[in-house]
Amino acid sequence: MTQVTERGTSLPAAPRAGARRRSPAAAACVAGGAVAAGLGLGFLAVLVIVLWISSPYPDSGPGGALHLAAGLWLLAHGTDLVRYETLSGVPAPVGLTPLLLVALPVLLMRRAARLGSAEEEDEEVLPAGAVFSAVLCGYLAVGALATVYAAGGPMPADPISAAWHVPLVAVLAALGGVWGARGRPLGPLPSWLPGGVRRAVVRPRYALALRAGAGGALVLLGGGALLVGASLAWHGAEVQTSFLSLTGVWSGRFAVLLLALALLPNATVWGAAYALGPGFALGADATATPLGFAGQPGLPRFPLLAALPPEGPGTPLTWAVAAVPVVAGLAVGWFAVRRAREVSYGETALTAALGAVVCGLVMTGLAAASAGPLGSRRLSHFGPVWWATGAAACAWTLLLAVPVAVAVHAWRNRPARGLAALDALSALDVDEVVDDRWHDSGVREVRWAAMRRAAGTLIPEIGAEPVPPAVVAVVAAAAPVARAPRAVTVVSGRGLDLTPILIAAKPVPLAEAVAPPVAPPLAPPVVGARVLARRKPPV
User: What is the CA radius of gyration of the chain?
Assistant: First the structure.
């Protein structure tokens, strides 16, 4: 205190209440979101520049290639691009998003949110809401700049479409990253939901319903991938001809191959929608379903489109695709069963029904994301109808999952074998029956003989009369009978030996012997002890 007053050192002033301290952790989260968006843009820019350099007919300079890369990055978020250079002169929208391209911004944004939520030593840990908001701000700032930059390219983005598609993808990816960094908690449902909904979907039930619905959706997608692969193999010649006829240079064929790989997830969803029954549209006037391929599709030349089913009514081969939703319904019913025996049949049926609803919602979202326009008029819609695909998935799984779940629950909780015989003996005295079985079956003798062989001769054989052990009496000094009994205290000495010794037992006559002779029991000797007599204390 004296040093402070003498040297005139001023104490640090208290921070004002209205001033806000800048958080380095929040700034790092904002930078992480911006870096995630920049990495996605950079990857697509490098890819487009390489294809532009290798192309023998570059139509525009490197500026046009960078504008196209920004447009492709926005297309990866579901944003519609507008193509102005058409034969009719009418602007044509391009909104068919390759789902494999969507994985790039989703993974980068999710990684940025996870890194922002990671807990490290000597660093500030922000709450989940702050991390989510900071990462989202950095990402959307770069997205807005990319939208403005892509407007000067050959395929600019629709501003209205970019205004809600980019934030939607960023929000979902950031939520997934923060949730994964926090350990994937499954807490109670939010309070703003109706009370009836929160009571119907309790925690164990909705966790199982999510697992069952996800399992059913994966089965549907696996079946769709199997259908696409089988169709590509069946129409191999047509696919090869279409691939080779698009371009004659290796850079162009490489670009077509990359586009086909990016559209394979879309084809998988289309195959699942085809197996469910609603099918998918191939323009405004054509639809492909298992019951038939009707209409006149205006299709561009592309390898994946060359593997479509033939036009005309359906055949038993196309009807056989109904096995895919059947297997999906069985999967939902199997995963919806809890292993606890106290769960009722109504609880199991309700969980299976919720799993079917989850499966329908997942397929609805995938169908909406995989469809879109490739132009105007006849090319205005390509892909499955989202509401029809979701309704069909929910109906198929609901129809099969509920009875399967109830049957699996009954099988897992069936009574064990032998309970029927025990129920038949319930009228009798079970204790007497068990005792009679124990004594009459010979089990007692077998177990006693095994124990005797393991213990040597220490355990007598069944049926032998127990031999009373010899008793070693220690007789004290004689005392008058008239006196009161004296208390005896045994005091052990230092050289006390407690090693057990064998004491000879009393011989048993041969006529009375029923069993082989038994070894004498063990008794500890008394060596080096003194017996002192003391009077009982007066009462």
Answer: 42
CA distance 134 to 139: 9
Residue pointed to by tokens 């006037």: 285
Is-contact 169 113, C-beta < 8 A?
no
> Quick check: 351 and 340 in contact, CB under 8 A?
no
Please state, in angstroms and rounded to a whole number, the distance separating the CA atoms of residues 137 and 29: 9
pLDDT at 62: 82
> What separation in angstroms does the CA of 309 have from each of 64, 287, 293, 306, 366?
38, 11, 7, 9, 22
| 407 contact partners, CB below 8 Å, separation of at least 6 | 333
Q: Which helix (H) or strand (E) holds 289?
A: strand 287-289
Could you write out the DSSP letters of every residue in 129-163?
A: HHHHHHHHHHHHHHHHHHHHHHTTSSSPBPHHHHH
The C-alpha atoms of residue 465 and residue 511 are separated, in whole angstroms, by 13
Phi, psi of 61 (to 5 degrees): -80, -170
The angle subtended at Cα 39 by Cα 37 and Cα 42, nearest 5°, is 110
The reported pLDDT for the residue numbered 285 is 80
pTM: 0.72
> Which segment of 56-60, 192-196, 241-245 scores lowest on mean pLDDT?
56-60
In this model, does residue 33 exceed pLDDT 70?
A: yes
Instruction: Report how far residue 443's alpha carbon sits from residue 420's, in angstroms, rounded to the nearest whole number.
Output: 24
CA 306 to chain centre: 37
Give all strands (DSSP E) within 64-204, no chain letters. 81-83, 92-94
Q: Which of 239, 220, 259 is nearest to 395 (CA)?
A: 220
264, 228 Cβ separation under 8 angstroms: yes
Residues 6+ apart with CB under 8 A from 495: 527, 528
276 neighbors 364 (Cβ within 8 angstroms) = no
Terminal Cα-to-Cα distance of the chain (whole angstroms) = 77
pLDDT at position 445 over 70? no
Of 155, 168, 159, the residue nearest 81 (C-alpha) = 155
Helix (H) or strand (E) holding 123: none
Evaluate whether 295 touches 285 at the Cβ level (below 8 Å). yes
The owner of tokens 């009077």 is: 535
CA separation for the pair 362, 333 (Å, rounded): 17
Which residue has tokens 């104490």? Answer: 11
CB-based contacts of 457, cutoff 8 Å, min separation 6: 518, 519
Given a cut of 50, is residue 195 above it in pLDDT? yes
pLDDT band at 284 (very low <50, low <70, confident <90, very high): confident
Q: What secondary structure does DSSP assign to 198-231, as a single string?
A: HHHS-HHHHHHHHHHHHHHHHHHHHHHHHHHHHH
Q: Retrieve residue 97's tokens.
A: 């998003």
Q: What's the distance, CA 488 to chain centroid?
A: 75
Confidence of residue 441 (pLDDT cuts 50, 70, 90): very low
pLDDT(83) > 90: no
